Amino acid sequence: MAREMMDMKNVDERSMTIRTRKLGKSGIEVSAIGLGCWAIGGPLWYLRDGERLPLSWGKVDDKESIRTIHRALDLGITLFDTADAYGCGHSERILGQALEGRREDVIIATKFGSIFDETTKTWLGHSHPNGIITQEFLRKACEASLKRLNTDYIDLYQLHWKDYDADLATGLLPVLEDLVSEGKIRYYGWSTPDSKRLQGFVEGSHCTAIQYNYNILERNPNMLALCEKLNQASIARGPFAMGLLTGKYSKESKIAKDDLRHSWWNLQDGRQAKQLEMLEAIREIITYNGRTMVQAALGWLLALSHHVIPIPGFKTMKQVEENIETLQFGPLTKEQMHEIDQILENYSYDLVLPD
Fold first, then answer.
1. Which tens digits make up the pLDDT trace of 194-250?
2. Alpha carbon of 284 to those of 289, 301, 329: distances in Å?
3. Burial of 245 (0-12, 13-18, 19+ CB in 10 A)
4. pTM > 0.85
5. With CB atoms 3.0 to 4.6 Å apart as the test, which of 101, 282, 283, 313 could cross-link to 36 if both were Cys?
6. Both ends of the chain: CA-CA distance in Å?
């Protein structure tokens, strides 16, 4: 009983310290947990070898999405991350509707770089002429996002092309800085897992955030170290490893055909099968003291570094409420973090994602 009382005291103390975090060198305060808005974009497809495959998380209820965003606002969420490609603009539109009258209360992050067909809801990749994002394309993309979001400015504008040429990316800095001067955007960043590409780009005066996959089972220590060194926010997408860390899936799970995981996952004999094994090895530790799997996954990220801001996706109000309840527990303890690493030591090769 004494240990439990001490644990709860520590939870209260920790939760008070992580309700907000700085968005990199911008100094902007945002909620320690944001929301990723890919899922609420609804249907999205891409073509591979002539086959039409899903690039979204299945059907979505727009009214539920808006109600959920309102609930998130009431519970203190201030960071919302989307992209023009999510639902071919639909995610931005829904977010813009939901934030009407509350724009000054939030930080909106969106992304550019993709080409898509709104009529067919098809993502066309990065088929820019000569593989180059032109100044004209960037400006048009920004204006289109501003219109869909129903706002005069974007707080964080991110390059959404993970393996874009590093020199070409650095070449975008003058136009991004012009957009800052014009009041169209406040800061910018890059959504990429490759720390080697960032050397020139992060030197931009208003570059303040890098977005990349990070979770208990998929790590990128080189990128985290770079963000800490350069005072860049580490926006952690995929905090639940596409849902595996929620604890809802097993090798027998069936995925709907309109869900991207239907074609991306192999639960019986693939990386996901190994991840399920890893998850079972640490389940008891991370759910100690009443945390759900979801809250443990977010608590692990919050304990990792004060630069890390996880952006879990959502479709329902219940999911968002569970995410936010993480703050009542606070980050995992140093002891829990160490114990998790010890158990997963045998999987170290599988944990680290390649640049």
1. 999 999 999 999 999 999 999 999 999 999 999 999 999 999 999 999 999 999 999
2. 10, 18, 16
3. buried
4. yes
5. 313
6. 46
